[in-house]
């Protein structure tokens, strides 16, 4: 097929309708196409026109991999297959001719952007489709207890929230609690200080301090529609930060269940939660809760329950569904399937299991596995590829 | 003579428009392609092309409008599409009609080769016919989304201006986007 001349804006019109992953593949077509795929003009149209697809990534031994799976045929009793072979390479250029692969400690996803903490505690934002990376300088220095999350304000500006743990108490005897909105006597040694990083001004700005009682790690949280959600320390509440209002919030969670982990469904637009409930000591029920907000303005979040596993007898369910688990949920013919991931142990390097349709399958997956039982806890996360630009947002 | 029925309960304005067009005097517009082919179409169809709609609003559309950038074969295809899409069915209100129209659209492009579709894209852009521009662009997008860079270079007649080293570097970076 030959066509002699198609002007650039017609090419943009066409490419803005091609899924992000396909465009990532087509970057090597020509220099102009490579530039277009990174270009702001295509990114804006692309975000309006292109279909979104959900994929899954897993972080194993400091490397990010694509999770390929065939879950569609589970209801037909076809054995599910999970493969972890495609490795996402994040390179850092050290000199003109030498670049090295970066070891990744943690990943936080928002709108196709990956906020990564490196093994040596530095911070980088990365779009694997466009190939764009942006290294972030800290306000003073990186600390190993720092936690980060990525979100978006209502004017489509991306921002990073940093949560820094301060061990030594200040001279003040009262501390303002940003979640409860009142002053508390500071009995705790721990305080969390929050800062926002703005990409356009390349600077950090403080947004408040809170006592340690409520606020553990935002890195295990989720970003939904730009807002960040994470569990408080008691796991009775869902804490949130809205980058538009720059306010913290809290939502109560369904009682009776132990809430383990958060994820997203519907191409990142809906928040969901994995929980367990034990009516007897040795019996485990696993539930998926999907959140709906009644409207944009009201604060209340309601939860719909989807049982995934009922009456799982035996310690292995306790072992698999506990702290440190990460997951994503998949809909197969009106039924939900949960793919989850846990720490390796000395007996097995299998870390992935599938639950749903009345089945529980421990998978010996194909591809990369943790090297040994002391490898860092693997992390499974949802990835929605996009061409979102780091510098200016959408 | 059929009477003009204007419903007062706020029914869709497309129905009102359709009914009104039955009772208004027919306005025909003549479009002439760059190679001298002429097409007489209803004003309602011509209005799908925003440049003509603007000319009509500004009262500078005569009865005959030359379309210098588009040949007759392409213009006839565009008019064929515009006629089918004069009234766009609402997805929520009339699912059946939407399905029928989608099916017609699919058959419409099925018969066209890629070069014709490119020409249609250019012409739809020139005439400012947003609906067809979007549809034709989507058709090409669907066609290329599973193709390799080599195949796409051939389709768009693009020269590979990367050095082998540069191309290798990008391939390494996006290895995860290739299946298998």
UniProtKB/TrEMBL annotation, chain A:
Residues 1-46 form the F-box domain. SUPFAM superfamilies: F-box domain, Quinoprotein alcohol dehydrogenase-like. It comes from the Eukaryota. Pfam families: F-box, FBA_1. This is F-box family protein. It comes from Arabidopsis lyrata subsp. lyrata (Lyre-leaved rock-cress).
């Amino acid at each position: 097929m030959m066509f002699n001349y198609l002007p650039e804006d017609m090419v943009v019109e066409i490419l803005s309708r091609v899924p992000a992953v396909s465009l990532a593949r087509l970057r090597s077509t020509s220099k102009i196409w490579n530039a277009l795929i990174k270009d702001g003009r295509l990114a804006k149209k692309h975000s309006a026109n292109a279909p979104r697809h959900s994929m899954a990534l897993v972080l194993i031994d400091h490397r990010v991999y694509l999770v390929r799976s065939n879950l569609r045929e589970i209801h037909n009793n076809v054995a599910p297959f999970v493969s972890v072979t495609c490795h996402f390479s994040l390179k850092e250029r050290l000199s003109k001719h030498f670049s090295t692969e970066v070891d990744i400690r943690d990943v936080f996803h928002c709108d196709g952007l990956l906020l990564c903490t490196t093994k040596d505690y530095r911070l980088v934002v990365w779009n694997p489709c466009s190939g764009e990376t942006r290294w972030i300088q800290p306000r003073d220095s990186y600390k190993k207890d720092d936690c980060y999350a990525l979100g978006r304000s209502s004017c489509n500006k991306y921002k990073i929230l940093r949560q820094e743990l301060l061990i030594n108490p200040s001279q003040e005897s009262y501390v303002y609690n940003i979640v409860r909105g009142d002053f508390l006597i500071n009995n705790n040694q721990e305080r969390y200080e929050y800062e926002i990083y703005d990409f356009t001004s390349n600077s950090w700005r403080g947004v408040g301090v809170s006592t340690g009682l409520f606020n553990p790690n935002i890195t295990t949280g989720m970003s939904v529609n730009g807002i960040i959600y994470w569990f408080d320390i008691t796991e009775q509440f869902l804490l949130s930060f809205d980058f538009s209002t720059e306010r913290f919030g809290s939502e109560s969670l369904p009682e009776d269940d132990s809430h383990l982990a958060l994820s997203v469904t519907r191409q990142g637009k809906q928040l969901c939660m994995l929980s367990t409930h034990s009516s007897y000591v040795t019996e485990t029920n696993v539930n998926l809760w999907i959140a709906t907000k009644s409207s944009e303005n009201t604060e209340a979040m309601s939860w719909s329950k989807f049982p995934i596993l009922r009456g799982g007898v035996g310690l292995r369910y306790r072992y698999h569904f506990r702290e440190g688990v990460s997951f994503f949920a998949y809909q197969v013919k009106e039924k939900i399937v949960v793919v989850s991931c846990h720490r390796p142990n000395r007996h097995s390097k299998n870390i992935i299991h599938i639950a749903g349709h009345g089945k529980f399958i421990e998978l010996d997956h194909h591809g990369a596995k943790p090297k040994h039982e002391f490898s860092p806890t693997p992390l499974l996360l949802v990835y929605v590829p996009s061409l979102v630009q780091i510098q200016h947002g959408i | 003579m059929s009477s003009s029925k204007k419903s007062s309960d706020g029914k869709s304005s497309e129905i009102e428009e359709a009914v009104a067009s039955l009772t208004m005097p027919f306005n025909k517009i003549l479009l002439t392609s760059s190679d001298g082919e002429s097409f007489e179409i209803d004003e309602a169809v011509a209005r799908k092309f925003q440049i003509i709609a603007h000319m009509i609003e500004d009262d500078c559309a005569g009865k005959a409008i030359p379309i210098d950038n588009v040949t007759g074969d392409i213009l006839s295809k565009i008019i064929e599409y515009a006629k089918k899409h004069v009234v766009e069915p609402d997805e929520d209100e009339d699912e059946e009609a939407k399905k029928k129209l989608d099916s017609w659209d699919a058959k419409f492009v099925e018969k066209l080769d890629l070069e014709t579709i490119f020409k249609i894209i250019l012409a739809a852009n020139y005439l400012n016919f947003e609906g067809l521009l979007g549809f034709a662009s989507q058709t090409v997008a669907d066609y290329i989304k599973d193709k390799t860079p080599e195949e796409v270079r051939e389709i768009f007649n693009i020269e590979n201006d990367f050095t082998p080293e540069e191309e290798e570097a990008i391939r390494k970076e996006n290895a995860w986007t290739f299946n298998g």
